[in-house]
């Protein structure tokens, strides 16, 4: 009888622990505000002439298929010969972010094709498209069309930002 | 007798009706032939309003050209490279993009139509700084501004909505910065038949030019149809104007032809 009771208690504890982690993975709002994420990306992708936000145009043109998106911030470089670009997508949950990743990767593939099919003024920009990356961080998907070193800096910064917020 | 008269009247109307049908058929055939032979020139004459398009004005000379700032992509940069303007290679009349090279601001020689065109930095030759188009206009306040944009990005893959949205972004910024400047939207130039960019077909260039014309009409500006003096009968750049590179850029002769066209299709008070 004692063993049965202990077994039931242990089972309940296990169940509670599992449901806690499930809630954490599917949190409706990320503990890291999008402004902090954008700042972390900016700091890793600095450019002399800065960036301009193109979220509204790009969302309608290229990302209309994405669902469960809370917020989007997309930026392009103001240098006429610099194709630097990055996007920060805040989804409603980690699961939604993972689902959205494919759509964003399709955009990166299309961006590379557009570069290949247009007038190429500076072939040194092409590796940015070849090495373009999209990665999931909690409820966020971040994509980068940057120099390799900048991409590493960006993703390191994001991880540090998350660690600072205790994730 | 009445019956006989009726018979004649009936026959008369039948003949008239048949004649009318035959005449209509001939007219329709003639119209179809005319439509199928339409060239870019004919298309423009039937669609473009003469109050928007800059017509022949007589030669306004070099003095007129000297008052113009040319804002555009690499096809415009050729004006500086080939020393076509009064200032030669040191001209301060050509505005294209700015970039950074060895930590220094330099002219990139190109500029692309985009949603951020009003924030993209151009190389301001007077001070060699990187400024937005609006900032540059506030300083320079040119009498005329000829804009040639849309081959990069635009003709490559933009939809009509996106193309026009980018132009609106640019024109709204320009209007805020220099209300007194007379703005001329220049057509894209044709490209050579051998050009390897698949998107740059004669039909696509003409389509983009129609959108540029629409923007001129929408903003009550002028449209300069330089395309017509550069194009051959097949819709391609005349080979004598091609610089033999990628089929997109004009040689000196081509650019001088453009200058001649601009000064003989001037923006006067009567335009």
Defining traits:
heterodimer, A: 167 residues, alpha+beta, five-stranded antiparallel beta sheet, 6 helices, 5 strands, elongated, B: 271 residues, alpha/beta, Rossmann fold, five-stranded parallel beta sheet, two-stranded antiparallel ribbon, 10 helices
Topology:
The complex is a heterodimer of chains A (167) and B (271).
Chain A (H helix, E strand, L loop, with lengths): L1 H24 L8 H11 L6 E3 L1 H8 L6 E9 L7 E7 L2 H24 L8 H5 L2 E5 L2 E6 L2 H17 L3
Antiparallel strand pairs in A: 1-2, 2-3, 3-5, 4-5
Chain B lengths: L1 H35 L3 H8 L13 H5 L2 E5 L1 H8 L12 E2 L2 E4 L2 E4 L14 E3 L4 E3 L1 H8 L3 E5 L2 H7 L2 H18 L4 E5 L15 H17 L3 E3 L2 H4 L21 H13 L7
Parallel strand pairs in B: 1-2, 1-7, 7-8, 8-9
Antiparallel strand pairs in B: 3-4, 5-6
Helix pairs in contact in B: 5-7, 7-8
Mean pLDDT of chain B: 90
Kindly name the structural category of chain A: alpha+beta
Task: Assign the structural class of chain B, choosing from mainly alpha, mainly beta, alpha/beta, alpha+beta, or little secondary structure.
Answer: alpha/beta
Count of the domains of chain A: 1
Return the string of H and E elements of chain A: HHEHEEHHEEH
Instruction: Characterize the overall form of chain A.
Output: elongated
Per DSSP E runs of 2 or more residues, the count of β-strands of chain B stands at 9
Find the count of extended strands of chain A (DSSP E, 2+ residues): 5
Tell me the number of helical segments of chain B per DSSP (H or I, 4 or more residues long): 10
Low-confidence stretches of chain B: 35-40, 42-46
Mind telling me the C-alpha Rg of chain B? 24 Å
Radius of gyration of chain A, taken over Cα atoms and rounded to an integer in Å: 20 Å
The number of helical elements of chain A comes to 6
CATH topology grouping of the largest domain in chain B: Rossmann fold
The biggest beta sheet of chain B is recorded as:
5 strands, parallel
Task: Find the biggest chain interface.
Answer: A-B, 18 and 32 residues
**Main sheet characteristics of chain A:** 5 strands, antiparallel
């Amino acid at each position: 009888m004692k063993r049965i009771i202990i077994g039931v208690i242990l089972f309940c504890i296990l169940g509670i622990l599992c449901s806690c982690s499930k809630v954490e993975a599917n949190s409706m709002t990320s503990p890291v505000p999008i402004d902090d994420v954008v700042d972390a990306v900016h700091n890793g992708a600095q450019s002399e002439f800065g960036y301009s936000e193109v979220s509204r145009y790009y969302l309608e043109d290229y990302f209309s298929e994405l669902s469960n998106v809370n917020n989007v911030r997309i930026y392009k470089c103001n240098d006429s010969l610099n194709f630097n670009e990055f996007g920060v997508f805040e989804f409603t949950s980690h699961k939604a972010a993972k689902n959205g990743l494919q759509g964003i990767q399709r955009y990166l593939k299309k961006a590379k094709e557009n570069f290949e099919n247009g007038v190429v003024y500076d072939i040194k920009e092409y590796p940015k498209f070849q090495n373009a990356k999209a990665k999931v961080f909690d409820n966020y998907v971040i994509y980068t069309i940057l120099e390799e070193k900048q991409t590493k800096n960006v993703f390191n910064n994001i991880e540090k930002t998350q660690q600072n917020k205790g994730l | 007798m009445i019956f006989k008269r009726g018979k004649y009247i009936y026959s008369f109307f039948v003949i008239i009706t048949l004649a009318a049908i035959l005449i209509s058929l001939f007219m329709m055939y003639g119209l179809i032939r005319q439509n199928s032979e339409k060239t870019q020139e004919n298309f423009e004459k039937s669609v473009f309003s003469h109050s928007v398009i800059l017509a022949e004005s007589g030669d306004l000379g070099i003095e007129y050209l000297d008052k113009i700032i040319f804002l555009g992509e690499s096809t415009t940069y050729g004006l500086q490279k080939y020393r076509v303007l009064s200032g030669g290679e040191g001209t301060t009349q050509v505005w294209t993009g700015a970039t950074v090279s060895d930590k220094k601001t330099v002219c990139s020689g190109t500029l692309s139509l985009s949603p951020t065109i009003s924030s993209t930095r151009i190389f301001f030759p007077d001070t060699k700084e990187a400024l937005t188009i609006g900032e540059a206009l506030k300083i320079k306040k040119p009498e005329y501004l000829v804009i040639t944009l849309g081959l990069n990005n635009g003709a490559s893959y933009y939809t009509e909505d996106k193309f026009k949205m980018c132009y609106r972004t640019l024109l709204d910024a320009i209007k805020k910065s220099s209300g007194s400047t007379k703005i001329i939207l220049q057509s894209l130039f044709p490209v050579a038949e051998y050009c390897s960019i698949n998107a740059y077909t004669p039909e696509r260039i003409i389509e983009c030019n129609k959108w540029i014309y629409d923007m001129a009409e929408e903003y009550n500006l002028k449209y300069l149809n330089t395309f017509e003096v550069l194009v051959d009968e097949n819709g391609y750049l005349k080979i004598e104007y091609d610089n033999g590179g990628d089929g997109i850029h004009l040689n000196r002769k081509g650019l001088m032809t453009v200058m001649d066209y601009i000064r003989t299709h001037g923006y006067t008070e009567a335009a």
